[in-house]
């Protein structure tokens, strides 16, 4: 006769048993009226931590590299720098649509909960990096990739969970809060990275640990599946061609900003060209595959929905413009404006995050409000007007002098944030509300793919534009300026001939660019004390490069304004409010609407 099971299973087994028992009760109990607010608060936390960690290392990179004893600007080390910045973004861009599809198949809450757990484990591993130099950098890059995998599970399914939980009349408000939290997280990460790096570089990663552990326990205890999973098979060929094609295409664009041969950028490099051509080819193969498999990963038929197609096009172009804005503002503040106003170069990463707060404030104010109003009046007017404000702010930044008045600069950042907030919330609601319930996970993943791809693309696009603008004017200006302060002609020419991207990265990392250019060869030691003080002071480099830098900014902000205007046009062409019925049947038909997909027939003005 079998006796009772032993009582002593340890505390971990007891906790696990209680979690499983509570999860079973949640599955058997229909969600109450307050569940939607639980879903909103938990997914907002998940999206916030995922997007903050996408950008938190940008400002803190100088402290991180000092902590592991690595010079990222030394020969052969630039790859570590690029992958620390872009590895998280590339993984997110490639995987979110796959993870959204898995959410549709196996449960959105299940994949979301697993994402919190993976994210927490990766955050612990990042903060415990046991290595130094190159090995330490590889450890961080590897676990950043794992962290991005967990973050992608969160972002790919959060919008679908909210769309399931909220009725249509409140969906814009809920998705607005979620989306604006994601956008604000990108900029709050800059500020948090600067503040935490001043304490200890490991704190940049430790800060995510208690938040992600709390979120993991909370999500397992409170969230439940409110829609049935869609039975299906994984589209392995589609997954493989998309992940490989998108990955090597984005990597090729990223490496295009590095110099190659005698060129300031690497767009003529055989490796870059192979990545670009191969990536485009594999994505074309992916499109063919998706039209021929029974259960595709990427629902190309959704692009026949005007609201879905126009909304994603607008989101892609806006993400490119927004990413370019973020990096160009950081370089502008750190390399020119802050030093001109007495800030040490090594302190500029922290202060750049602080001085960009009006942008985040604009997001936080406009996002929830426009989401709420779009529930009543439709998405088109708010999203289109928001993009026009974004374009106007870019034109305003274009007109500013390099040494601007901060009040005007802050007003333009606030205007840009308000415009992006007005656009993002209604646009997300429009996209998610235009597809049937059973496709919300993959639709959320597709939306996130366009957004994350745009951010990754922006770095290659705008850095290349800035480098091209600097390459035509910076060498001559830099050489003559160095010679005028006692640097030998040969040394000045050699320093001026270095690729402009190295100067940009030095500024980005909070290094004194002149110290970076002249420090290794002992040139500064052979100059007089007065000459050294002038060359490495706060004002020499900013005043010297202000002309070439402004030329590059003119190109960057002109392109960004053009993208915002094209995005506004796409938003305006989305048509009236197009909404899929929440009660769509599995065959995709509305009751009483024969032969027409539900998301093509449920329209309201």
Query: How much helix, percentage-wise, in residues?
Result: over 70%
Specify the biggest β-sheet. none
CATH class of the domain at 31-225: Mainly Alpha
Structural class: mainly alpha
Low-pLDDT stretches are 1-8, 583-605
Strand content: under 5%
Under the CATH scheme, the architecture of the domain at 31-225 is Up-down Bundle
Give the radius of gyration. 25 Å
Q: What is the count of helical runs?
A: 23
N-to-C span = 70 Å
The gross shape turns out to be globular
- Order of helix and strand elements from N to C terminus: HHHHHHHHHHHHHHHHHHHHHHH
Tell me the CATH topology of the domain at 31-225. Answer: Growth Hormone, Chain: A
Annotation, overall tally of beta strands: 0
Name of the CATH homologous superfamily of the domain at 31-225: MFS general substrate transporter like domains
Mean pLDDT: 79
Quick structural overview:
With 605 residues, this protein is mainly alpha-helical. Helices cover 73% and strands 0% of the residues.
Descriptive account of the structure:
Residues 39-514 form the Major facilitator superfamily (MFS) profile domain. It is a multi-pass membrane protein. The protein has 605 residues and is mostly helical. Among the domains are: 31-225, MFS general substrate transporter like domains (Growth Hormone, Chain: A), CATH 1.20.1250.20; 474-549, no CATH class. Helices cover 73% and strands 0% of the residues. It has 23 helices and no strands. It has helices at residues 11-28, 35-67, 78-106, 108-127, 133-165, 168-197, 203-206, 208-222, 236-255, 270-290, 306-340, 348-355, 357-377, 380-399, 406-433, 440-471, 474-483, 489-496, 500-508, 513-518, 529-535, 540-572, 598-601. The radius of gyration is 25 Å and the shape is globular. 55% of the residues are buried.
């Amino acid at each position: 006769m079998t006796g009772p099971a032993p009582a002593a299973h340890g505390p971990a087994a007891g906790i696990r048993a209680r979690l499983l028992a509570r999860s079973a009760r949640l599955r058997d109990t229909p969600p109450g009226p307050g569940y939607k607010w639980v879903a909103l608060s938990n997914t907002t936390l998940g999206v916030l931590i995922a997007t903050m960690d996408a950008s938190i290392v940008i400002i803190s990179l100088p402290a991180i590299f000092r902590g592991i004893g690595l010079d990222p600007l030394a020969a052969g080390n630039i790859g570590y720098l690029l992958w620390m910045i872009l590895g998280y973004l590339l993984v997110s861009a490639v995987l979110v649509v796959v993870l959204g599809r898995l959410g549709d198949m196996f449960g959105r809450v299940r994949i979301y909960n697993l994402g919190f757990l993976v994210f927490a484990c990766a955050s612990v591993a990042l903060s415990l990096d046991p290595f130094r130099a190159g090995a330490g950098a590889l450890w961080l890059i590897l676990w950043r990739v794992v962290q991005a995998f967990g973050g992608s599970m969160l972002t790919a399914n959060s919008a679908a969970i909210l769309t399931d939980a909220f009725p249509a009349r409140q969906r814009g408000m809920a998705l607005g809060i979620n989306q604006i939290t994601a956008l604000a997280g990108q900029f709050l990460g800059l500020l948090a990275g600067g503040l935490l790096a001043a304490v200890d570089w490991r704190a940049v990663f430790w800060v995510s640990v208690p938040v992600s552990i709390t979120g993991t326990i909370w999500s397992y205890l409170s969230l439940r599946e409110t829609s049935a999973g869609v039975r299906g098979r994984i589209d392995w060929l589609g997954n493989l061609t998309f992940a490989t094609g998108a990955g090597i295409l984005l990597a090729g664009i990223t490496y295009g900003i590095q110099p190659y041969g005698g060129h300031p950028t690497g767009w003529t490099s055989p490796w870059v060209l192979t990545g670009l051509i191969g990536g485009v080819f594999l994505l074309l193969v992916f499109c063919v595959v998706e039209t021929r498999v029974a259960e595709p990963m990427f629902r190309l038929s959704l692009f026949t929905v005007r609201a879905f197609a126009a909304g994603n096009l607008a989101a892609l172009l806006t993400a490119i413009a927004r990413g370019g804005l973020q990096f160009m503002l950081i370089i502008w503040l750190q390399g020119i404006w802050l030093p001109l106003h007495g800030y040490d170069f090594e302190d500029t990463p922290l202060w750049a995050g602080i001085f960009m707060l009006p942008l985040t404030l604009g997001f936080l104010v406009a996002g929830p409000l426009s989401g709420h109003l779009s529930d009543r009046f439709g998405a088109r007017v708010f999203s289109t007007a928001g993009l026009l404000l974004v374009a106007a702010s870019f034109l305003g930044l274009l007109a500013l002098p390099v040494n601007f008045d901060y009040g005007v600069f802050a007003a333009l950042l606030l205007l840009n944030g308000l415009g992006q907030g007005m656009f993002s919330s209604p646009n997300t609601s429009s996209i998610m509300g235009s597809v049937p319930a059973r496709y919300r996970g993959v639709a959320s993943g597709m939306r996130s793919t366009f957004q994350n791809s745009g951010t990754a693309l922006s770095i290659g696009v705008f850095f290349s534009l800035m480098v091209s603008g600097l390459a035509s004017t910076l060498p001559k200006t830099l050489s003559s300026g160095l010679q005028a302060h006692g640097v030998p002609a040969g040394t000045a020419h050699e320093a001026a001939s270095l690729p402009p991207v190295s100067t940009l990265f030095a500024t980005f990392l909070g290094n004194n660019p002149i110290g970076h250019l002249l420090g290794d060869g002992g040139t500064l030691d052979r100059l007089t004390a007065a000459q050294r003080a002038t060359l490495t002071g706060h004002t020499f480099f900013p005043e010297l490069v202000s002309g070439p830098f402004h030329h590059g900014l003119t190109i960057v902000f002109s392109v960004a304004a053009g993208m915002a205007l094209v995005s506004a046009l796409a938003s305006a062409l989305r048509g009236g409010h197009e909404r899929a019925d929440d009660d769509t049947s599995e065959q995709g038909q509305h009751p009483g609407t024969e032969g027409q997909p539900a998301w093509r027939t449920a329209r309201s003005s």
